[in-house]
Design goal:
Blueprint: E1 3-5, E2 8-10, E3 15-19, E4 26-31, H1 35-53, H2 57-73, H3 75-86, H4 90-110, E5 118-119, E6 130-138, E7 141-145, H5 151-164, E8 168-172, H6 179-189, E9 197-199, H7 204-213, E10 219-223, H8 226-235, E11 240-244, E12 249-253, H9 259-270, E13 281-287, H10 288-302, H11 323-338, E14 342-345, E15 349-350, E16 353-354, E17 357-360, H12 367-370, E18 377-383, H13 386-393, E19 398-399, E20 401-405, H14 409-418, E21 423-426, E22 442-443, E23 446-447, H15 452-458, E24 460-468
Parallel strand pairs: 7-8, 7-10, 8-9, 10-11, 12-13, 12-20, 13-18, 17-18, 20-21
Antiparallel strand pairs: 1-2, 3-4, 5-6, 6-24, 11-23, 14-17, 15-16, 19-22
Helix pairs in contact: 1-7, 2-4, 3-4, 3-6, 4-5, 5-15, 9-10
């Protein structure tokens, strides 16, 4: 599949093989972009600013609706492509497509809701007789850098709000899983003027760095690791930056929780996309008084999960993105076992697959839970009170999402207020997300917010216009 620059498909001399994580088959090849390609894409986006600026909000909205219709028409094809390149079970890929379609629709709606406000200058000294208002204006060129785990939906969360706010976009998809994004970009290009969207596939050290440091790129929107996010923040200069980084999300189960519902929350949160989810359940913090019952029920449900061919509609858990990722999970689990964790089920690797795993008697100093483990692991940490549960939930450098299970509204509100995370759900796991809600974490989980209304705000700057009516 070729890159898309200024409405043209651009091949390359150097190619990267995109492989199916399930069987190692080559799905397709993509060009490895170099600096001249990035420069050309940025130049194209700069030139296209005039074309999209001349469009009315009504027209931008209608064109986003056209893309929305095209995505619906291509849903099954893109879901299959997503499964082939990521290894995500097809039923999960279809959910990602549904969410992507919804995100486009929300963006089309939001394109017509970009409001300024009047400013009462007469509230200040000498302001009497002035009339002032603000306008929201586009930033210009947005550089989007996206990860492999939800490649389409997370990309649309960047590029659709950017376009809704009349920006142009250069997107660097993940080299491990670029195909669905690049195919989607072609759908956008069919509707919008050439250069409004451009794709450059390549290595972060070359393509990503060029976007981050280019004086012609006005914003970087990045989803990925903390280390890369910190590097971007240090090198972006005066650009506006949104960073959606890692998570180490707790699911707290208090002594009065509905145990069956809490187990279901772990099932939905710890094993989704083989645990390769930034807002996945990474730590299961359970009150000791119900921990035995909880663990027994969790093992029973986990053992029912089917791993295998992700194109099989009955498959629940697919492979990790590549074998080295599975080996990292294996090492993290093995180290936890050496340090005293107890295996209740799973803890086996087969190539790119890692069996859904429940560990008990995990302690907060084990690397498995100190760092973000990107795999299908449910590590149980036992606590003896609400106070201890909150302290344990906050015992991390991350602060993305959290979930708390309790039948006490007092304990639920207390946890919601005291747990340091961008989102806290009561009686729901951390992976729950609607595409219109504000999404973004505290601490090392990043800066800025996504979620369409909030992302559009991040894609604009405010201008004050004042009239002297004296």
């Amino acid at each position: 599949m070729d890159m898309l620059i200024n409405g043209n498909k651009i091949a390359g001399d150097d190619l990267f093989e995109v492989k199916n994580p399930y069987n190692g088959d080559v799905v397709d090849n993509v060009p490895i972009a170099h600096l001249q390609d990035v420069d050309l894409a940025i130049e194209s986006a700069v030139k296209a600013k005039k074309a999209i600026a001349e469009m009315s909000a009504f027209k931008v909205s209608n064109k986003l609706y056209e893309v929305y219709e095209k995505l619906k028409e291509n849903k099954k094809e893109l879901a299959k492509l997503l499964t082939l390149e990521v290894g995500k079970p097809i039923k999960e890929s279809l959910v990602e497509l549904d969410r992507s379609i919804e995100t486009l629709k929300l963006s089309a709606e939001e394109a017509k809701r970009i409001y300024g406000e009047t400013v009462p200058l007469d509230a200040g000294i000498n302001g009497k007789g002035f009339f002032a208002f603000t306008q929201k204006v586009p930033l210009g060129v947005v550089g989007a850098i996206t990860p492999f785990n939800y490649p389409l939906n997370l990309s649309i969360h960047k590029l659709a709000p950017a376009i809704a706010a009349k920006n142009t976009v250069v997107i660097k998809p993940p080299l491990d899983a670029p195909l669905t994004i690049m195919k989607f970009a072609e759908l956008v290009d069919e509707v919008f003027p050439a250069g409004v969207i451009n794709t450059v596939s390549g290595y972060g050290t070359e393509v990503g760095d060029a976007l981050v440091t280019s004086p012609d790129v006005d914003k970087i929107s990045f989803t990925g690791s903390v280390a890369t996010g910190l590097s971007i923040a240090n090198r972006a200069g005066m650009k506006k930056v949104t960073l959606e980084l890692g998570g180490n999300d707790p699911l707290v189960v208090l002594d009065d929780a509905n145990v069956d519902e809490a187990v279901l929350g772990v099932m939905r949160g710890a094993y989704l996309n083989a645990g390769q989810v930034c807002m996945g359940v990474k730590r299961v913090i359970v009150d000791n008084s119900i921990a035995d019952e909880f663990a027994e029920k969790l093992v029973k449900e986990t053992s029912k999960l089917k791993t295998g061919n992700p194109l099989d509609e009955s498959t629940d858990v697919g492979p990790l993105i590549h074998e080295s990722a599975a080996i990292m999970v294996e090492e993290a689990v093995n180290n936890a076992i050496k340090d005293g964790a107890e295996v209740l089920c799973g803890a086996r690797r087969d190539g790119t697959f890692y069996k859904p795993t429940v560990l008990d008697n995990v302690t907060s100093d084990m690397d498995l839970v100190v760092n973000e483990t990107f795999g299908p692991i449910a590590p149980i940490i036992r606590v003896n009170s609400v106070d201890e549960a909150i302290k344990e939930a906050n015992n991390t450098d991350y602060g993305l999402n959290a979930g708390v299970y309790t039948e006490s509204f007092r304990n639920g509100l207390r946890c919601a207020n005291e747990i340091e995370a961008g989102t806290v759900f009561v009686n729901k796991q951390s992976t729950f997300r609607t595409d219109n809600m504000p999404f973004g974490g505290f601490k090392n989980s990043g800066t800025g917010k996504e979620g369409i209304k909030y992302a559009v705000e991040e894609m604009t700057k405010s201008k004050l216009i004042g009239l002297n009516l004296r």
